[in-house]
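Onboarding guide, step 5: your first structure request.
Type a short instruction followed by the sequence, for example:

Predict the 3D structure of this protein.
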Amino acid sequence: MSKAAILRITKAVAFEAFGAYACRLALATFREGKTPANLTGRVKLAYYSLKAMDKIIPMAAMMRDQEKSEIERPQVYDEHLLNLMVNRAYDLPEVIVDPNAPKRINVLVPAFTINTISAGFFGVFNVALFIKQQGFAVRLVLFDNFYYVEEEFRNALKKFPSMENLFDELEIEYIGSRATPLVVSPQDNCVATVWYSAYFADKIANATGSKPFIYLIQDFEAAFYPFNSSYCISRNSYDFKYHTLASSAALLEFLKKNKIISDSPEFKTISFDNAYSSSIYEEEEFKVKKLSRKKRFVFYSRPAVNRNMFEMAALALIDAYKKGAFSADDWEFYGMGIGNTTVQLAEGIEVKQLPRMPLDEYEAITKTFDLCLTLMSSPHPSLIPMDLAASGAIVVTNTFETKTPEYLINISSNIIPAHPGLHELSAALMVGVQKTNDVASRYSGSKLNWPKSWDETWSDEHRKFIIEALSNE
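The system replies with structure tokens like these:
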């Protein structure tokens, strides 16, 4: 039996007997040659068990050899791994042009899960439905390799407003396994929905006659990366031939101002606003509930998503708390987003993280909050400020280039824009705490200058854009 196998068996037995936490501490102490002076309970038992085993098998030497081999073992980067590291932008499905295939608009959809579906995917699917309403046959092309069972996804989507019949209204084709090519007609066109799908849209366009596709841009996605390979590859996606459909006027202005998209008149541009999701109490009930209980603060907490500026938001909240903005007796603190995260405001005062929840539960809970802090290091305003402001909460969010104070305040008087700096955000929170007392103003501010439904989103101008962009002329 190999040394590695002996180590695996020994560790497995120890983990079963003493528990993972105790074994990790014991292993670290044993491996480093330290004494167990400060170890107690199960950790100490695990340590002495390893010590006894060392007399029979040289455990310490084996561990050191294993660590050394792991450190010195070279990482092998083959073509497949490298392609995975850059979202397979250069490793695209095969495309076959069949003159007998029906003409379709191919909406290229990346991997997603029903449990973690985001507002961005609601945007993708509603754009697809809107294109179909203009008389086009639409196919959702699921081109990423991910877990997909049509019946499960079909049933799950029935829980989401406007998407109950998505799979009945649109053709769905999963090609993520790359077992079969994507068959298109010479008249087909595409909608790219994420930066790496633009490479696939360009490949299809080249196969069918180099028609410009529609690039649904929901953020400047190159900024999701540091200056590395992924940044350059994603930034290059904006150099293809396409018409721009941008999520929000602030984002479209940013793309134009920074010359990220072409200013050639042959390429069309338009923006749209994703419909928000929220609910609010009736006016009298709203006033009663907001004055009869502890106030509730919610922090959009997503440490894993860099553009949501977790560190800045948490520090601003702590700073405002230290300066006396909140009374612990009058406020409850909650986190909402992704991850099991605790933010400690002071000794014994923590932000309680809420679990990720389906849309109906999310809408129900938004109306219970009084003050929200949600940041986005992006020209896109995100939808959380709209969801919370429309539910009657005061919302502190940050500005960003074309996402100006005037732009944000015009959406709702419940939104307090602040420069993305610690002291500016902390000061805005202190103003927000005071504004929560004006319940009548908060209810008035819940009437947003922003679409509540997708029917409100689309205009005749959008219809004209879609028809002209996807025509073959």
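Each response can be followed by summary notes, for example: The radius of gyration is 27 Å.
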